[in-house]
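Fold this sequence, please.
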Amino acid sequence: MRERPSEATQQAADWLVQLHSPDRSPNTEAEFADWLRASPIHVREYLRAVEVWEGLAHESVGQDSSQEQLVWDANAAGVIEFPRELRAAAKSASPIRSLPVAMRRGTALAALFAGMVLASGYFGWRHFTALDVATGIGEQRSVVLPDRSIVELNTQSEIRLAFTATERRVELVRGEAFFDVSKDPARPFIVATDLATARAVGTRFSMYRTPTGTVVTVAEGRVLVRDALAATDSLAESADFAGAVEVIPGTQAEARLDRSVQLRQADVERSLAWRQRKLIFNGEPLWSVVDEFNRYNSPPLVIVDPRQRDQRISGVFGANDPDSLIDFLVKVDRIPVTRTDRRDIRIGSDPH
């Protein structure tokens, strides 16, 4: 179950008070680190709490450290990942430089994340910020972006960021991603594939680059989606996002090579079930179910009897548990399944 941001905000404030307390226990910092690593939302809310507490220009935050040194220290904590180019620049800063005043007072983690706030501001207003994030087969990953938006990548997915002072642009190179967008009306959040472009300000939505098109599903707020050829780049950045379709919760838009963007009703829970590592099917043909399972697992499932390709499947399965599907096929649909030395799992009897 996804934690509500209001709970994380309160917890972040509580941690900030504890870390600044002279009466904190010896285990406080270790427990705080565990809480941070439990969710990228915790990182984002703590950054916000520190910004309120300290202020970006507070004299005691990072007093003895350059921005590059703060980037180096924050990245070394392993809680948030920064762009490679900035990590490289930060590496040139001496890691043995004297620590900030606040650290010498014993509030090491508080000062560290105050430094991360400074670093985040530094990233956001650079002329250009680049970042690549990717996942392998069966892997899912959550990342806090430089603007404090959160992206969750599904299996075999990749995104590329190109943030500027006026725009936050993400390219979905392959696969599927869910975006929890931090509000910034001055810098629209744009996600693009070769077939579609989605624009949001502060919302939660997913984009899936399928073999035949691009699907955008909205969980909260609204997203404008347009065909990649519906407008020029200059129009794409205009206030009305010319040629776009508005997608709201409960609906999704699909763009395909052979047609413009189409809007339709959607089962959002089912479409986003992958975030809980679940796959939900409601009468899908077996070939489609197999294709979906093969996104997450290896060795692949192979249908050897073409007569069973259109067998309809309904159920809830673990995305990384192909045995749950195999048991269903054998026990419920009486379809034979064979594990072979060919490094695949064969569904059905070979008609030959």
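The mean pLDDT is 76. The longest strand covers residues 168-180.
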